[in-house]
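Fold Annotation — chain and its backbone
Encoding — discrete vocabulary of local shapes
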Amino acid sequence: MRSNKRLYVALGFGLLYVVLGFSPAAIAQQYSFEEVSSGLKHQDAGTRLRAIQILKDADYAEATVPIGVALGDVDDRVQLAAIDAERSLFTTRVVPRRKKVGLIVEVRTVAGGDAAASGQLALKARRVPPELLSGLAVALRDNNAHVRAEAMSLAALLGPVTCAPEVQVASNSSACDGIGNGLIDNINTREPVLRRAAMQALGQVRYQNAVQALSDQLSYHQKGPDAVAALEGLSGIGHPTSVSIFQDLLTSSNADVRRFAVAGLARAGYREALGTIQDMGQTERNDGVLLAMHYANVKLGAIDASLQQLVVSLGVPTLRPLALTYLLDLSPSHAQALAASLVDPSVDIRRLIADILGFSRNADVIIQLGAAAQEPDPDVAAAAKQAIARLQL
């Protein structure tokens, strides 16, 4: 943390500096990052709220640490403000929010939890500190359902790029376990929508220790929204012990269930299912399930045009969230093939491919992204520059 950073303070925040002992006559001056951060420890909740707002508006990466600690604040208002500030500090644009049921949690507006992939593309090139993850784990166990719901939303946004097994670093291991276990605790909540959101988030974070809890929920409910949410979680994790579950559900009359089963088998690496999945494609009519089959073809190593079909689906608004989910997952192993689409005739596809490559963890595509960063379309160029920054973290 750099002590020489200064923050310009607007007149509306003057009370904070009076409370902290600063001269009212000096309100228009600059104050150090440390001076503003100290307001987060003040006994007055209003002062803590104003400090969060100043740090959020300043958009310093260093602010994620002290605000992360505030996620465990005793005041619900401070916790909610801290969650909102962290979301702002990590995103380049407003992440589309979903409709709320009362003040409890969001309801999905697209099939599955795949809208999270669209939010992931908005992430800035910033590391997620352990302090934020630890604070998030505390917020997930808060007595206030609204706080828990917002914490789940943030966990679903940051978890895939921080706590998924393939990206997790040793320093975050304990904190990521805390988030995963906090989400498991919420499976037992009485609020059904919140319960389902927890199961979906476990799949997005790919918390492998949740497999038994999700399997128990699926076995108990068997059908309906809770069963589908449990299956979605299991599908996201794709653990080999869930293969028999996925196989049994390939013939379900519910298209979402078939889609999750196909994707789950692909993530589990169960190549023996490839023939069955390809046979399903002869009669399947649901676009989402067909897209999952293309994903499985690529994930399980089939040689065909499925990767390009996923790329083409980025240009179809109704299929884009699913295509993003699958391509983000495939990008580490297929980065070079995807980079070829940086010259696609569609501006939208070029922009989205650049965004996706930023999460590939494959620095070999930086050369292609560098060329895309020079192209005339400002959105494509910006996405390519952001992708390079992510890869260089």
Observations:
- Residues 271 and 301 are 8 Å apart (CA to CA).
- Residues 145-162 form the longest helix (18 residues).
- The two ends are 17 Å apart (CA to CA).
- The chain has three domains: 97-237, 252-330, 334-393.
